[in-house]
Structure formats: C-alpha cells, structure tokens
Request: fold
Amino acid sequence: MSDNNARDPDGGERSVKLACEAVWKVFGPGAEAFLAEHGGQVGDELLASAGLIGAVRDASLDVYEGEIFVIMGLSGSGKSTLVRCMSRLIEPTAGRVVFEGQDLLAASEKEMIEIRRHRMGMVFQHFALLPHLTVLGNVAFPLEVQGVGRAAREKRALEVIELVGLQGREAYYPRELSGGQQQRVGIARSLAVEPEIWFLDEPFSALDPLIRREMQDEFLRLQNVLHKTIVFITHDFDEAIRLADRIAIMNDGRIIQIGTPEDLVVNPATDYVAEFTHDVPRAKVLTAGSVMTAVDGVASQAMADVAGRVTADTRIEALAAEVVNADKPFLVIGANGQTLGLLTREAVLAVLVGGNRVR
Amino acid sequence: MSQAATGVAPALAWRSPWLAAWALMLAATLGLWLGKDLWPWVVKYPRGWVVPLKGWIGDFMKWLINDFDLGLFTFKEFTRGIAWVLEWPQWLAKGLLAKGFKIPTGEDAFWLTPTLSWLGLVVVLSLLAYRIKDRTLALLIGFCFLYLAVFGQWDSAMITLSSIMVAVPLGVAGGLALGIQGYRSPRFERAITPVLDLMQTVPVFAYLVPILFLFGFGPVAAMIATMIYATPPMVRVTLLALKTVPEEIKEFGRMAGCSRRQMTWKVLVPAARPTLMVGVNQVIMLSLNMVIIASMIGAGGLGHDVLASLRRLAIGEGLEAGIAITLLAIALDRLSQAFAVTSPAGRHGQEGKGFVARHPYLIFALAVLLGATLLGLVVPGLRDYPEAGQVTTGPFWNDLVRWININFFDQFEAVKTFLLLNLMIPFKRFLLQMPWTAVVAIVALAGLQLGGWRLALLTACLVAFIALTGNWEKAMITVYLCGISVVFASLIGTPIGIWAARNDRVHKVVQVAIDTIQTLPSFVYLMPVVMLFRVGDFSAMIAVIAYAIPPSVRYTDHGIRKIPPALIEAARTSGCTRRQVLWKVQLPLALPEIMLGVNQTIMFALSMLVITALVGTRDLGQEVYIALTKADTGRGIVAGVCVAFIAITADRLIGAWARRRKQQLGLE
Ligand SMILES: Nc1ncnc2c1ncn2[C@@H]1O[C@H](COP(=O)(O)OP(=O)(O)OP(=O)(O)O)[C@@H](O)[C@H]1O
Ligand SMILES: [Mg+2]
Reply:
C-alpha cells in the first residue's frame, strides 16, 4: 500500500509543470479596478464592504511534473475556482499562471483552445457527460472536436475505454450507467487526448463511499501506468492522504499550507490545519523516518542489535505489525542505504495508540 | 410618527403610508368625478386631443408599399420576393399531401400525380407512434387520422397539414437562431425581449392587414402570420434551455477545446434537446391555433371550413371541421411530446450493421407509403377515402341545437338576462365613468407600491397611450369583459386546482382534461356558445371563461403541490386539521403562484376576447376586427397595441406583486 504513490525522495530535482503566482479571483462588479487600487493587499472586511467576493486570494503554488497535487478545503473555500483559474476556464482577476514556462494569461483565445485540446484534461464532479452521445461518442468527443477522423478517434477511444475497464459498454448511453461507471467514462474521456496535466475536481464526491474507495484504487492504478501531472480537488482529508504526494489546504480563498500529508499532520501551520488532521489515523500518514530516534541520539552498540531494516519513507501502517511483534528495534535507512536511526516498538505503539501526541 | 406607533408594529407603520395614499387616491377619484362639469377633460379624454397615430401608421404603410425604393428594387418587390421563395416548400408539401403535381404531357394536357394514399399515411403515422412510444399512442394517432378520412375532412386537413409542415420547421429554425444569438449576446437578448413581449400580446388580427399588403393574399401570407405568432415561445424556450445546460457541461465543452460553433452545435443544443423540444411542441400548437385566423388571409384548409360554417351559422359542419383541427392538434402534440422524451437507446450491438438492418421501421414505413400510393393508381379507394364510407354528424348537431333552443330557451334567456342586468352592465357603466386621469394615477400608484418608480412610470405610460390614441372607451369595455371573465374563470378554476392538489386521482384526471382543453383552437369555443346564446357580450364572456380556466387550475394545483412537505408536516404535528392546513398554510404560501395563474388567465382571456369580436362585442377586439375588414392598417395596429398594453400592464403589476410576496415568504 505504502509504495503505490512512487514518491520522489526529498531534495530530488523536479521540474515545475504548472505554477500559480499570487493568483486572485474576486467576483463582483469592478473587481479588477478595486484590486489594482489596493495593490493586492486586501483584507476580508475591505472586500466585503465593497460588495465583492474573494473566491481565491493571493494563491501561489507549484505543481511538479508527475506528482499528484491535492487541493483540499471545506465547501466554498475556493478550490473549484482555483483549479478553473489554472486552466483559465475562469479568468483570474490578478496574478500569473505559468504552464511549462508559458504565461497562460497572455495566451490568445486560439492558443488557449490549442492548449486545452492537446495538453489539458479535466474530470468533473457531476461527470458532465453529454447525454446524447454513447460512451464511445463521449470518449471520442475531444478528438472529434480536434478534427480527428472517425476511425482513428474511435480506435483511440476504445483503448482508453478498456483502460478504465468499461469494455463492452461502448454503445450505452450515460443514463444507462451507474455513477461509478459514468465517472469512469469521464476519466476515459479526459485521458483520450493524452493530456500533460490532468485536473480532477472532486471526481469521486458524488459517489457512495464503497464505490469511492474502489475508484480511488483504480485512480492510483492508472497513475502507476500513466505518470501524469495531476491536480486533484477534494474536501475529504482521507481521500487526500490516500492519493496525495503533496496537499494544499485552502480556507476562505487562501492557501494556508502546502506539504506532504505527513508534514500537515506533524507540523500543522495553523489550528485550522490541525483541526483537519485531528482525526486522521496517524499510522497512515507518518513514516518510519519521522517516528524513529535519530542516529546521534543512540549508542552505537544498539545499532547492531536490530530485528531488521526499513526505509525511512515507509508508512507506519505498513510495518506496524512487524515491529510490534519483534522484540528488538528496527534500523531505519535512507534512500542510499545510509543509516538514519532506530525505530522502536514503543514509538510505533505510541503512534498506533496515542493519536495526537506523536512528538 | 409617535414613539408608540412605531414601537407597536413596524409592519403597520410601513403599510400605513400606502393605506393613506390609497385613501387619498379614492378621494381624488371621487373629486374628479364630481368635478366632471368643471373640467370635463379629466373624466373624458377630449376627442380633439387624440394623437392621430393610426393615420401616421397608415401613411407610413402606404409609403412603404408604394414609394419605398431600395435601389435595385422596391420594398414591395422585396417582400413579394420573400413570398415567392416561401411558396416553394409549400408547393412541394401541398403537392405531396393534398393536390398532386401537374406533369405536362403535351399542349394544355397534363397528368396529375397521385397524392400520398390516406391509408398509407394512417398506417405509417401509427407505426411511427408505435416506434417512439407505445401501442396506446399508435391507436390514438390512427384514430385521429381515421376520423379525418371518415368524416370527409381529409382533403382540407392535408392542406392544413402541409402548411403546418412548412411553417413549423421555419418557425423552429428562426426561433432557435434568435435564441442562440440572444444566448451569446446579452445585449441582443435585452433588445429582443420587449419585441417578444409585443409579439405575444398584440392580437394576431392587428398584423394581418400589413402582412396582407406586403405579402399578398394567400397561403404564404398566412404562413408568415403564423410564424410571427408561433415563433416567440421558441425564442424564449431556446434562451432558457441554453442557459440551463449544466455549468459543468459548458466547462467540459471549453476544456475539450470547442470552437464557438462546435460549442453551440455539438454541446449546447444537443444537451438542451429535451427542453428545446418543449419549444417545438409550442410552435406546433400555436401554429394549429392560428389555422382558423390564417384562413382569413387565404390559408384554406380546415380553418377555411370552420370560418365559412361559422359565418353561415352551420353549426354541425363547423363543429366537425373544428374537431378535425383539434384531433390534428392532439395528434401532433402527443407525437412531438413523445419525441421529446425518447432518446436513442437500446440499440447496443448494432454498430456494424448496414443501413437497412438498422432502420427496419423506416424502410417498412416507406415501403407501405409508396406501395399504397402506387396501388392507389389502380384502386381509387386507396387514393381517396371512398365517399360511400363517409359519415357526417352535421345534421345531428344542428337538430340538437334546435331542440335545446326550443326546449330550454327560456331558462338560458333568464340566466343571461339576470347576469347582464345585475352584474355585467353595472360594472361596464362603472368602468366607463371612471375618469381616465384617475385610472392612470391608480395604475401608477399600484406600480409604485409593487415595484418602484420605474414600474410606475412604465404602467402609467402604457395606460396613457390608450387614452392618447383615442381608444379609451373601447379599452374600458375590454377591461370590463376581461375582468368579469377572469373573476369567473378564477372562481371556477381555483377550487378545481385546490381539489386536484389535494387528491392524486383528481389531479390525474384534471391534468388530462386541461391538456386536452388547451389543444382546442380558440375558435372552437365560440361555436357552442353562439349556438346557445347567440351573439353579444354574454356569449363572449362564456367563451372567454371556458378558454381561460385551464391556467387557473394548473397554477393553483402546481402552487399548492410545490409547498415543501416539511411545512405541511410541521402544521399537522402542531395539530392543524386538514381544513386549517389548507387555509392557514397551503393557500397563503401558494398565493403568489395562484396569482401568476390569474395573470395567465388574463393573458388567455385577452387573446380570446379579440376573437370574440366575431360574435359582436364592442371592445378593442372589435376595433381590430373592423380594421381588418376595412384593411385599415393604422387603426388595427394601434388598437392591437392597446390590447397588448393592457396585457403588459396587468402582467407587470401582478408579476411584481408575486415576486415580492415570494421573497417575503422565502420561496425564491
Ligand atoms: N460565478 C460566481 N460569482 C460569484 N461568486 C462565486 C462564483 N463562483 C464561486 N463563487 C463564490 O466563490 C467561493 C468559492 O467557490 P468555489 O466553488 O471555488 O468553492 P469550492 O471550494 O469549490 O466549494 P465546493 O466544495 O462546494 O465545490 C464561494 O463563496 C462561492 O460562493
Ligand atoms: Mg467545487
């Protein structure tokens, strides 16, 4: 379970696929002028008093090539607005959106159409399938729009339909499918054009919990094959930690904190973040590296007397049974095999039992 | 205001200035009326002040037709050119269904191709109904078209059907195009909205004359009038349908990289299809509603038959042709509704097959139609329904009416006289004596209270226009007839609606009943009424009431059913009886919706009222009708616009009230 996200080790050089720089989206008349006048330093009261709604405020983030970047926050915190600013479905009021070094906000309408046609894909919360087209027609639609011939686009569509496990249902209409199947169609459709960046706006929120879990597994399986750069929106923290390489937490339009699931649990930046992470089972988030006793604190003879070795990025959940049942501690090693510290039975038990008092 | 007064009830304090204003208004009205000898002009709009608008319009029309030159050709040549273009599809449809095509075989000789076989058409249409819905619909369609054949209405019905077949696609396409344009450009939408309002409220009679001048007497002019009448709902439905396509689907379209055209035709229009079909259905129904009026400027067909019988007072024949129109309307209505809800499905695993294998029904239907038509060359009974098999009930109806009139004349007469003397005439007198200035002021005050100064200004101007153009008295007669009919229609319709809302069985029956009643062309209401009560205000009132009841029933039923069940449960648990629930919860909450029903009732009543001019009223409708018979463009248009302004005034005032009330109740 723990290794299905294929995490990059910290410090590795990763190129930025998409960057938001101080992006604002303010709804309401005269928003642009208002923001320009106040130079981007607008407080909540000021906005409210002008009758404006600050859906996204001063959001900056980098999405790295090949990672699953999850944006999460409560309903109305501006997640959907932010992700739509990234693809310019919504025109940001201020700031910059840079996609592979290109400033999207400076792109012409035509360039945007080209970028969206070939390099971006999006999955919607309520599926947004076209009711008059079959599964095949829906999946082939983005290619049809590009002007790909019927035979070629249907061949490609059949490939992705098979990829999401819907073979045999090509001729069904959306309303003849269950919610989970409809979202599979939505996923297949967004993958048909082989996008470089893949936006998913609460793709599983409309599904019931069992199906949701199944779809999450399916999603991780797909990502293992495809290695897309992904921006994934959710308001469900469990979903976030299952899927995310990194998570951005939003509140009232602002990004409060960006970090790995573990960062957020271990070092919540604010009470708001702590509140979110409060109920998370620690064992699912914490890794051996963050629970171990570091090398310098341990006598060297203790290092020799160990039950086995684990890598620092293994999650406690995955090794708990082993460590708890062993009578000796485990050695924690880094990516290059260097010794980092010792993982004791007591430390693991503390994680399993003690909830919040990890540190 | 004293401290105590404001402290006790803020609501009262808010209301009392209005109360005072209305009291003042009452006093002023009375004062104006008493002072009518001092300043006669405040009571009766002086004839000398009338703006000769109708003259101007008439002159403009003359200029347009006789002198306006577009350079290469004149305006009249231009409109006649349009008529010429529109003639072709009509010629084609009529040739197929009704008249056949003349194929010259030599000097002065020609061979007339056969029209499509009646039996073939009946079978094919039933088959179509079976394909898109079920056996019941197939039987209904079969029955409707068999009626046309058996009762000898086939030829007229095919003429009517052929003009519908041309007018509807054109109307739908035009409405769709305007709607799409309006969706893309809010400016355009704002510009066409008032035009649509006018098109839907100006009575048809008013624009028949200018159309006649521009396009000439004949089926094409009739078709253009039909399109003007039937297109506005399609525009509105298109706008609504496109706006209500889920935001996510629009976003998906953009993310897929659709161009504007792809967005419209590949995403928006298909996704909005179910709603758009409602518009198509509306266009069909309104086109059929126009059949009789259109026959006044040369449409021919069933409408012509009805009108001719109505003029001869040949009730039986008129009724049969009227029923034929109704059945045609019902058949097309049910067919188009069935189309709206079916969507392609259940054809899994057919992709690889050929055209024939995929469309067995289509092939079979075409074969039947063609076979029957060709066979008709040898067997005349297949081509035209044999005369020997025709039935007519005309004499029966004529006898029935005679019998009723002989045996119940006194009773009918007594009811009529009683209502006329005690209700209608006094009310009419009262309205006619109201000072016109006071009416303008009252309407303005109502507008001010309900919607603010803009509404006040609008309604005052609309009402003042009626006085300015010299139509005041006739307008007051319209208001009197309309008002009394609406009161009766609401008194009958609302209780039925309440009953239907509280009882599911009744609801079902009532739904079917009003759906059917609403497919009747308005002229059909006139016939039995004239048979029984002869011409005059009373007949007009009865016909209008009958026509205007359905919206009142529908809105009441809908309004009560729409109330959140939680509220009803809350009332029940706090111990309300069923009666208390009705009076204390359901009715107050449904009142805004019921008032919208009244609003619709007014609209229906006004449109029917114009038609009742045929049975001899003296209102604006008569003015429009006289203008039609005299071919007086200006007079007809001005009177027609006056009717529209009455309708718009009522609509805006009631609409503003209902909106405010709904907001207060937290229903919006
Ligand atoms: N078109 C708009 N006009 C005005 N306000 C808007 C508009 N779109 C969104 N908002 C406001 O912006 C804020 C953020 O909305 P957004 O849809 O981005 O939230 P979200 O985090 O996606 O919520 P959810 O989880 O419910 O989808 C909300 O307060 C919303 O009311
Ligand atoms: Mg959202």
Chain B has three domains: 95-346+366-392, 434-468, 472-665. The first strand of chain B starts at residue 102 and ends at 106.
